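Reviewer 2 asked us to include a model.

Predict the structure of this chain.
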Amino acid sequence: MPKYVYGFTEGNKDLKELLGGKGANLAEMTNLGLPVPPGFTITTEACRRFLAGGGVPDGLWDEVDKHLHAMEDGMGKRLGAPGDPLLVSVRSGAKFSMPGMMETVLNIGLNDESVRGLAAQAGDERFAWDSYRRLIQMFGRTVLGIEGDRFEDAIERAKRHGGVTSDLELTAEDLRRLVRTFKDIVKDETGREFPEGPRVQMRMAVEAVFDSWNAPRAIVYRRQERIPADLGTAVNIVAMVFGNLGMDSGTGVAFTRDPGTGNQGVYGDYLQNAQGEDVVAGIRNTIPLQELEKIDASSYRELLGIMRTLENHYRDLCDIEFTIERGKLWMLQTRVGKRTAEAAFRIATQLVDQGLIDMDEALERVSGDQLAQLMFPRFAGHGRLIPIAKGMNASPGAAVGRAVFSSERAEELTARGEEVILVRRETTPDDLAGMIAARGVLTSRGGKTSHAAVVARGMGKTCVCGAEQIEVDPAGRRFTAPGGVVVEEGEVISIDGSTGEVYRGEVPVMASPVVQYFEGAGDTSDDLIQAVHRVMVHADERRRLAVRANADTPEDAARARGFGAEGIGLCRTEHMFLGERRRLVEDLILAVSGEERQAALDALEPLQRSDFAGILAAMDGLPVTVRLIDPPLHEFLPDLTALSVKVALAGEQATARDRRLLAAVKRLHEENPMLGLRGVRLGLVIPGLFAMQVRAIAEAVAERRAAGGDPRAEIMIPLVGAVQELEHVRDEARGILASSGVEAEIGTMIEVPRAALTAGQIAEAAHFFSFGTNDLTQMTWGFSRDDVEAAFFSRYLELGVFGVSPFESIDRGGVGRLMSIAVEEGRAARPDLKIGICGEHGGDPESVRFCHDIGLDYVSCSPFRVPVARLEAGRAAPPREESDSR
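Predicted model (structure tokens):
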């Protein structure tokens, strides 16, 4: 029979898969000799078996009872005993941190008898009844599924009845009455009494924690953070220590460095006379951790020493939860802390300078997604504006949007294309969907360690917390700021997550200094820029994958080169036929004789040549892969419906050209043009079209060489499904190139499943492959991207059909398998075959790593994503001494 329960002395930080992050780290702190309350952990394996439908695994409760008895014997107390009760917390703890997404129940073991024993033990009746009402409230909400507002409303009524404004001002008698009210709520909502049995409470709480793994908010969070759904959560049962025993007790959260900036110092929040949930829930505003030195200097000094120990031990920023019980410090949790993108880069290089990690590990501590966040714009000129309020700078960035006051409204407006700021008194885990939808989050309560702050930082969302100056009215859908300023739902506000300032109206934004650095104009003395520079230099030294850019104009090509692109992997020639040139394409389509068609091609050729010359100049000395025209020709013609109406309304006055265009549109109309006459098929069906483009490329190369340049053009044939298609176009192109005295590699896109499956044959006629993963994904899944994403992707994500859109990250099991087959069989036929990717996946961090793993030579992405791809290519590669020679 498997072992389902581990005492804290049996585990360590490397057992996160089995014990979850919280349990593994509690065991690690115990082994380090830090003050951790006694406890034990139920494994993730037990959870997985429970969720599989078999109920609690056989033997689990026997193991739990064995560890509980050992804990009771060690402490000289019994769970829920009337005289001197042991109380425990039951807390979730998955392998990956999911703050606030799953359940916790404190004060398990209290009932009508043991509450009196707790009061006598503590010498504080108010404390005992406060703990009891907390148990019923948390148990009712998390285990019995009762709406939390029922309990909150009862608390508000009790405060009004007592003439007080704070929970702390409620007397023991007030709390005793509140317990009775809470029990009535339980009976009213569930039809049964609140369970008095301590072990019954504990077992029901454990099962509720197991169930919370599949709670809607946990599913949404896992999807957002790409956490596997089959891991399950561990459950930690820990002896209670009490921060609500009076003003000499309290609870707090500390960071060993600022999670917002990465700066070293003392960062965190503390609440006197409180339990841990009060801090992270944000329902009471905290005081800065530094204030603890004035309240309890001894505990403060001990905490700082433990923080140093943990940071040196974990070699990273640590997030710590602690409780002080009448002057005694207890450690309740530690984990590697979530941080902003800015902090991630600073901390990584700081730890290198401190000798705790090397640059290889520093590279692993940052990500392409974080670098992308640093490249977002920031507010410009807000120093001249007067903020209407100010809170804590919980997660940096500039966010502008319409104020909304519910998660549902945030989702609704975002789905309509609006940008919104979610405004709440405090967020709860149930607000997760709205936080994902919103550009930023503003709360009137809570601190840097509240739910809103922690989750926003993890998602890279701008967040301002604890803006006490504003009064949020969710029912009225408005908030009031000092000076009588009222902001109604729908009004635009701007929040600055770097300063904590809130502005009415839209504040203009400016380019990120990190973007300016990549463009060669940044302030290199800035410590963030220095950190980014050091990491990027190391990534470039380590990576095997080259990084190119998708660019269609000389301006885009120049910008991409500034961002570090090593060539162009996709130059879309059809983009050169838009605007004023569209009429020339119309002439080509309307041509009825060979002479008319050639005249249209002759008019287009010098324009194409000029475009290619400019791009080759911008990328001088680097490869430029030019894709011959790909989309169906009807895309260059007017809309069928609009043109039909125009001709019908004009009647006999309709021009001859409009009538000919309408006939052409009808002739070229296809039910599914993505699978019709496009790509290589156009080159084979319309004489001279591809030849014109190849001549323009050859002439541009010759022109550039004559000017003393080093042009390196490559010609790419799109939508090939059979080697014979490629051979026909290749042979024609070779003849044109030879007559021009120009050499250029000729390759093809692999974007049709058949091309991937016959890659060995196609490779014999190609110098290179480039995966067009947008079309390959559409054809492999049978999805029309323009239709399906809005139609049913949200439902597919909800059902777990896929964890992330296959258009966002490569579907490794389907599209990725086709790619792997093409790489293997293509190189078997032509060992020197160069292979890249030019779909939008080329800038997706996960997809870049996949491209490295299957042996591609380069990725190509939009210019803005080039630094992201460079970083991820470096992270994908092993350290130099371990890398292969490829």
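The CA atoms of residues 65 and 748 lie 66 Å apart. The radius of gyration is 32 Å. We have added this to the supplementary material.
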